[in-house]
Specification:
Elements lengths: L2 E6 L13 H10 L2 E6 L4 H11 L5 E5 L12 H8 L4 E10 L7 H18 L3 E6 L2 H10 L7 E3 L6 H9 L3 E4 L9 H9 L5 E3 L21 H12 L3 H15 L10
């Protein structure tokens, strides 16, 4: 069985308290059949730190992008484009809009989001979208910028079925995190039942949002297994089938040859 954690922040894990090093994290993940990880950057300095941490490990890919709440850190858009061209980078992001924590700079967020989409289209790489309290503007920008040309994933999905339908029609994938296991998130479980299985990804968003039975603790890639088991029940398939299909989805979206992820 081969499970992919499609979104985590490896450099934010607690290596002093919970893990010896990155190889320890990988070993724990492998013991849960989580065999590939996409490590997500939230600004350009974060990307460089991730790249140094990951090194030449073949079971980890990288994203490069600027989170909507990280614009205060100096950057140059041409530098983003250059870094995204690196071989280990399979996507732009995470990018998007976050009005929950910040509305005063929403126009700057929108401009940066558009830049990510335009670069993604020009380089034929997908985008990883963060969306919080900004559904209407996010969808409007995706449509206006023709984001169906690059496609992408709405990570850590917490919206309704109507929003999921719009994103699916744009060619996007929907990624579910440990939130789907929480007690009061039946609305998200309804969305998971609705989304076709060939458009679903799994993620931990480590070190955040640990799934039941580890809720309240630090999350880690290994715990993707719990999310996979939960989604398999919702989709009424066995865990092996769910793992195989979501891994194939991951490879398709991020242009990774499936033979590269051989069990």
């Amino acid at each position: 069985m081969f499970i992919v954690d499609s979104h985590c922040h490896l450099n934010n894990l607690n290596y002093h308290k919970y893990h010896l090093n990155l190889d320890d994290v990988i070993t724990k993940a492998l013991s849960y059949n989580v065999k590939f990880i996409l490590a997500i950057a939230t600004n350009l300095a974060d990307y460089r730190n991730l790249k140094q941490l990951v090194g030449d490990r073949k079971n980890i890919a990288l994203s490069c992008g600027i989170h909507p709440l990280n614009q205060q850190i100096p950057y140059h858009i041409n530098e983003l484009r250059t870094l995204v061209l690196e071989e280990s980078v399979v996507a732009l992001g995470e990018t998007g809009l976050d009005y929950f924590y910040s509305q005063e700079n929403k126009f700057q967020q929108q401009a940066l989001f558009r830049q990510h989409i335009r670069i993604a289209i020009s380089l034929n790489k997908p985008i990883i979208v963060h969306m919080r309290n900004a559904c209407d503007d996010t969808i409007a920008i995706l449509r206006q910028e023709a984001a169906e040309r690059c496609k992408g994933v709405l990570h850590c999905f917490t919206e309704n079925k109507e929003t999921a339908k719009i994103l699916l029609n744009l060619g996007f994938y929907i990624s579910f995190s440990g939130i789907i296991t929480f007690r009061n998130t039946e609305n998200i479980r309804d969305v998971a039942r609705y989304v076709p299985i060939d458009r679903i990804l799994l993620e931990t968003d480590s070190p955040y949002l640990a799934p039941v039975p580890h809720r309240g603790k630090e999350n880690q890639p290994a715990f993707t297994r719990y999310i996979a088991e939960y989604v398999a029940i919702l989709k009424k398939v066995d865990i092996e089938t769910l793992a195989a299909i979501t891994t194939e989805n991951f490879c398709k979206l991020f242009h990774i040859p499936t033979e590269y992820l051989i069990d």
